[in-house]
Amino acid sequence: MAQHNKLLLATMIIAALILVFNFALSAINNFETNLYRYNLSELSNKYFTGITPSGWTFSIWGLIYFWQCLWIIFAFINIFRKVDGNPAYVSPMVLTPALFIAYAIDIAFTITWTFVFDRELIEISFVTLFLVSFTLYICLFIAYKNYATHAPILAKQGRNIELWLHRLFVHNGLGIFATWTTIATLLNLVMMLVYRLGVELQTGGTIALGILTGEITLFVFTDLFFLDKFSRYTLTPYLVVPFALGGSMDKNWNSDKTNSIFTAALLGIGLAALVLKLIMMFWRHCRKPIQPGETNSYDLKV
Q1: Segments forming the whole domain that contains residue 247
Q2: How far is CA 129 from CA 125, 126, 236, in A?
Q3: What pTM value is reported for the model?
Q4: Contact residues for 207 (Cβ-Cβ < 8 A; gap 6+)
Q5: Is position 119 within any domain?
Q6: 67-96, pLDDT tens digit by residue?
Q7: Is the pLDDT at 145 greater than 90, yes or no?
Q8: Residue 1 lies in a domain
Q9: How many domains in the chain?
Q10: Contact at 8 Å (CB) between 267 and 242?
Q11: Is residue 228 part of a domain?
C-alpha cells in the first residue's frame, strides 16, 4: 500500500507557497505601490559601486525564478507517480524535508532582503543577502548528498531520465541562484564599505573583486577535484560568472581604471574555467561515469 510522508508533503507545500509569495512581491516591485519606496534599479543607481553590471544582466532573475519553478514542479509531479506501488517522491526520498525547510528559509531571507534594501538599511541588507547565498549552498549540499546516496537505487529502478532531471532542474537551479546571489552579496558589500564606512569607491570595488577572485579559485578547485562525484553536471555557476562580469564591463569599462582591468582579467579567468569545466565534464562522463551505463556509445579509445 502506498505510503505518503506527511512531513515531506508539508515542507514541500510551505516552500512552494513562500516561493509564490516571493514571486508576487517581485512583480509588485515593478509598479508604484506603498509597499516599496523604490524599485531595485533606482537603488542600484543611487548606490553606485563602479562594478555593478548593466541593467540587462538583471533579467537573469527571470531565468532564476523560472528554474526554481522547474525543480519545485518536478518535486510535486513525483507525488503522483508510482514506483513499485509507492509514491515516487519517497521511493527513495531524494528531495528531503531538510532540503525544503532550508529552501523555505532561504526564500524568506530573500523576501526580507527586498524590504531591508528598499529601506536603505545597507548593513542589514548585506548580512541578509549573505544569508541568502549561504543558505542556498546548504540546499546544494543537502541535494548533492541525498542524490549521491540514492542515485544507485534510481538507476536500478530504471529511472535514468529522472537522474538527469535531478541534475538539470535541482542542482543547476540551485546553482544559478546561489552564484548570482553570491555576486549580489559582493555588490552589497561595496555599498556598505563606500556609503556607510567611508571607503573610497575604487578601493571598495577592488576589495569585492579580490574576494570574487578567491571565491572563483576555491570553487573551481573544489568543484573539479573534490566534489566531482556530486557536482559534475552543475554547469550554471560557470555560466553566471562570465555573464555578470561581462555585464559589469559593459556598464563600467574604462581602460584607465584599475577595476576595469581587474574585471576583464576575471572575465578571462571565468571563461577559461567554463571551458575547463566542459572539457573535464565530457571526458569524465565518457571515461569515468558516476553511474554504470551512463556513457552509452560515448566510450573513448585512447
Answers
A1: 6-288
A2: 6, 5, 20
A3: 0.94
A4: 189, 190, 193, 199
A5: yes
A6: 999 999 999 999 999 998 899 999 999 999
A7: yes
A8: no
A9: 1
A10: yes
A11: yes
Q: What is the DSSP string of the chain?
A: -----HHHHHHHHHHHHHHHHHHHHHHHTTS--SS-SS-HHHHHHHT--S-PPPGGGGGHHHHHHHHHHHHHHHHHHHHH-EETTEEGGGTT--S-HHHHHHHHHHHHHHHHHHHHHHTT-HHHHHHHHHHHHHHHHHHHHHHHHHHHHHHHHHHHTT-HHHHHHIIIIIIHHHHHHHHHHHHHHHHHHHHHHHHTS---HHHHHHHHHHHHHHHHHHHHHHHHHTSHHHHTT--HHHHHHHHHHHHHHHHH--TT-HHHHHHHHHHHHHHHHHHHHHHHHHHHHHHS-SSTT-STT-----
Residue 298 resides in a domain: no
Residue 238: CB atoms within 10 A of its CB come to 24
Q: How many CB atoms lie within 10 A of CB 196?
A: 13
